[in-house]
Amino acid sequence: MFKRLAKCIAFANIKGGTGKTTTCINIAGYLAKSGNKVLVVDFDPQANATSGLGIDGTTIEYSMYDAFLNQCQGYDGIPITKIVLETSVENIHLVPSSLNLGVASMLLQGTRDKTGILKRIIEPVKSFYDYILIDVPSDTGLFMLNSLRAAEQIVIPLDPSIFSLEALEYLKTYCRDIEEMSDHVINQITVVLNRAIISNSTQNSSGKPSPSEEIESRLKELPDPVFVVPQSLLIYRSQQEGLPISHYATNTGKIGKAYEAIATHLSGNSNVVTIPEREAEYAS
Ligand SMILES: Nc1ncnc2c1ncn2[C@@H]1O[C@H](COP(=O)(O)OP(=O)(O)OP(=O)(O)O)[C@@H](O)[C@H]1O
Ligand SMILES: [Mg+2]
Questions:
Q1: 3-state secondary structure of 131
Q2: Is 95 left (phi over 0), alpha (psi -120 to 50) or beta?
Q3: Exposed, middle or buried, 184 (CB in 10 Å: 0-12/13-18/19+)?
Q4: For residue 48, how far is its CA from the centre of ligand 2 (angstroms)?
Q5: Residue ID of nearest Cα to ligand 1 atom 14
Q6: Whose alpha carbon is nearest atom 16 of ligand 1?
Q7: What residue numbers bound the domain in which 121 lies?
Q8: What pLDDT was estimated at residue 197?
Q9: Closest to 107 (Cα-Cα) out of 65, 57, 63
Q10: Atom 3 of ligand 1 has which residue's CA nearest to it?
Q11: Is 235 left (phi over 0), alpha (psi -120 to 50) or beta?
């Protein structure tokens, strides 16, 4: 008999504020819209994926903290199956987070295989979902290593800055290290240039490329698939309502197309939209 086995995708960057949570929520939206069962795991004590999917953190009984405790030697926790919540979006379930997850790393004395905790947490629910999307905090330690070991694919959202290019290289080194340290294989890294600003004659009278376009050119040299997501007011409005844009608006324009293309690519049946193709599309 056919058995589901979720593909696990981590949305990660060691740099903060690059769009990890926003990308995670919106990819979840488009994957769910095409009929996939999606679990979003909020692995960030900031709990932005939790509020971004419309769940009020003050009302939740259990969170990732309890799932984490369940894996710590000498503590009573709660299995993930009792923590998963439904959201208002059909086909998206959530493991919510809470601020106390931030201190979980202090409770690990005596716990075996400390970078395999998240992998062990999600194991019991992998057969219920098509995709498990992990929203990773901007971290260089325990949370990052656990996330990279739990996921077969990594999505790295970048903001258009020089520091982001540096962070990308560091994170790729982390991916290689985790593969060397364990028997885990990361199948694919996908880069998302987020909040891209496409210059036009009114924005840029000098005719020079914008910083965003300069970063794009640098990313073109990478062997990894690269997608570009424009800056959009829809993000602010949809997050205010606790919904992915796919379920917030009917006309989602260029940003909707961009997320849809990434979701198709991650589900493994797409022609990758590389930057040159995107330029043709966005120029129209
Ligand atoms: N394409 C976009 N257009 C407009 N605003 C965006 C876009 N992507 C992200 N934002 C906004 O940028 C801010 C940072 O995004 P987000 O919280 O997703 O980043 P993050 O990498 O998850 O941050 P952190 O490191 O704190 O977890 C948020 O206020 C979000 O609403
Ligand atoms: Mg975040």
A1: strand
A2: beta
A3: middle
A4: 6
A5: 17
A6: 19
A7: 7-283
A8: 81
A9: 65
A10: 231
A11: alpha
Which stretches of the chain drop beneath a pLDDT of 70?
1-3, 199-206, 269-284
Q: Which ligand is nearest to the CA of 254?
A: 1
pLDDT at 48: 98
Q: Is residue 1 included in any domain, yes or no?
A: no
Bridge-based pairing state of the strands 188-196 and 153-158 = parallel
Residues of the chain by 3-state class (helix, strand, coil), percent to 5: 45, 15, 40
For CA atoms 140, 142, 147, 152, the dihedral sign is: positive
**Angle of CA points 117, 118, 122, to nearest 5°:** 120
In a domain, 25, yes or no: yes
First to last CA, the chain: 47
DSSP letter (8 states) at residue 108 = -
Tell me, what CATH number does 173's domain have? 3.40.50.300
Strand order in the sheet with 188-196: 85-86, 92-95, 38-42, 131-135, 7-11, 153-158, 188-196, 226-230
User: Which residue has a Cα nearest atom 26 of ligand 1?
Assistant: 17
Cα 244 to Cα 230: distance, rounded to the nearest angstrom: 16
Is 90 a member of any domain?
Answer: yes
Total residue count of the chain as it appears in this document: 284
* 201 Cα: distance to centroid of ligand 2 (angstroms): 33
Residue 53 belongs to a domain: yes
Question: What's residue 234's pLDDT?
Answer: 96
Ligand index nearest the alpha carbon of residue 50: 2
Q: Which residues line ligand 1 (CB under 6 A)?
A: 16-22, 44, 46, 48, 137-138, 194-195, 229, 231-232, 235-236, 239
Atom 27, ligand 1: which residue's CA is nearest?
A: 137
Task: Report how many domains make up the chain.
Answer: 1
